[in-house]
Amino acid sequence: MGAVPAGQPAGRRLRPAGLLAAGPPDDPGYHLLRMDPWRIQVLRGRDLAGGRPSRIWAAPST
């Protein structure tokens, strides 16, 4: 194993390869994470260079 990443306690290592190597849904190691974005900000270099603000999408309030 490599070094523990900064901010990670010993024994809890970040293993992104394990997150991306998903098996079939009936595999005990299969987990599903649902992400519901509430705000998305798009930064384009040409807009920033031209003094224009970034684009922001926000989910409707419920």
Describe it.
The chain has 2 helices and 2 strands, in the order αβαβ. With 62 residues, it is α+β, with helices and mostly antiparallel strands. The protein has a two-stranded antiparallel ribbon.
The main sheet orders its strands as 1-2
Sketch the topology as an H/E string, one letter per element. Answer: HEHE
Uncertain residue segments: none
Secondary-structure class: alpha+beta
How large is the radius of gyration? 19 Å
Main beta-sheet strand count, sense and barrel state:
2 strands, antiparallel
What is the helix tally?
2
Termini separation comes to 46 Å
What characteristics describe this protein?
2 strands, 62 residues, alpha+beta, 16% helix
Summarize it.
By secondary structure, this protein is α+β, with helices and mostly antiparallel strands.
Give the helix/strand layout:
Layout: H1 16-20, E1 39-42, H2 45-49, E2 55-58
Antiparallel strand pairs: 1-2
